[in-house]
What does this fold into?
Amino acid sequence: FCRVDPYGFERPEDFDYASYEAFFSRYLVVLTRRAIKWSKLLKGNNRIQKSLKVKRYIRKGIPNEHRALIWMIVSGAQTNMEQNPGYYHRLLEGEKNDKLVEAIKTDMNRTFPDNVKFRKTADPCLQHTLYNVLVAYGHHNKAVGYCQGMNFIAGYLILITKNEEESFWLLDALIGRILP
It folds into this structure.
């Protein structure tokens, strides 16, 4: 196994690779079975209907390859993104609130310090993507702006979706609709 996991987090020096491999070799059977069920459910398209079956599948776990899509659909973020084409980029092109930008920049280096993808030396460095998502969201939801800790939520969304705009819309769904 690699010293860095698939999301970019470094494993600690005392990581027990033998136990992890023993666990993962058994768990891989479960993951494979779930992935097959999800693939059949999606049938090659990017739409699903909310149902008890989908709810049960979600509770058992969404395979990595489908996670971003399912989160986007179930949260309503996909619909919002489709109904507001270009909105995210307009937020980034607009005038910036200096206090908001300063607060975000303060937390940038604190975001996942043990993740190689958020280091300034990474290529590409996800700090710029994180900055864009947080600045856009702060201007989108002025009542919330930026709060300490949002960098970790947005950072995680970026790692899962691998897409800046989708991460913005998921952050909006979480903070704007799901959490309140």
User: Anything to note?
Assistant: The mean pLDDT is 93.
